[in-house]
Amino acid sequence: MINGLRLPVCPSPRLNAVIPVAGRGSRHGELTTDRPKGLVEVVGRPLLAHVFERAVNAGGDELVVIVGYEAAQIVDRFGDVFDGVPITYVHQRERKGLGHAVLQAEPHVDGTFLLVNGDNVFLGASSRRSQVWKGPTPRSRLRKCRLRSRRRPA
């Protein structure tokens, strides 16, 4: 209720976190001879665990992970859920670069999405969703709800 007016409830949009991690990780040398770069240990945990955690803290409601090299190891390690957030795996069969990898996620993403490279780690103070994700204000959220709920005249 705003200023005594009862307003329609508009659900927050879901935010997919797209995480490409399909490359071989050749720059990591011997660390990726028999495992994907996402499973290389960083501060006692797989690299992807750090990436997933940051994506969830930034507001990701679903993780869309683009896999390639040694994909089965990543799927076996993380399964279908990370910290209560569902994971969808997309296989990039041909390695044609980052742009191509992100395009593979298109059927699984609706609208705005968060793109987090699977080989970047941000360590330090824990970020909270409210500190990172600055969603629409109640007024703009209301405006979006109204625009979506109007029907065009026939």
Describe this structure in words.
- The chain has helices spanning 47-57, 71-78, 98-104, 129-132, 138-149, and strands spanning 16-20, 41-42, 45-46, 62-67, 81-82, 85-91, 113-115.
- With 154 residues, it is an alpha/beta fold.
- The chain has one domain: Spore Coat Polysaccharide Biosynthesis Protein SpsA, Chain A (Alpha-Beta Complex).
- The chain is globular and about 40 Å long.
- Mean pLDDT is 77; it is low at 125-151.
CATH superfamily: Spore Coat Polysaccharide Biosynthesis Protein SpsA, Chain A
Over all CA atoms, what is the radius of gyration? Answer: 19 Å
What name is given to the CATH topology?
Answer: Spore Coat Polysaccharide Biosynthesis Protein SpsA, Chain A
- Low-confidence region ranges: 125-151
- Helix/strand order: EEEHEHEEHEHH
Lateral strand order in the biggest sheet: 5-6-4-1-7
- Binned strand content: 15-25%
Count of separate DSSP helical elements: 5
Mean pLDDT: 77
Q: Helical percent range? A: 25-40%
Domains (count): 1
* Top CATH class: Alpha Beta
Distance between the termini: 32 Å
Major sheet summary line:
5 strands, mixed
Secondary structure category: alpha/beta
Tally of strands: 7
What sort of overall outline do the alpha carbons produce when their principal axes are compared? globular
Q: Architecture, according to CATH? A: Alpha-Beta Complex
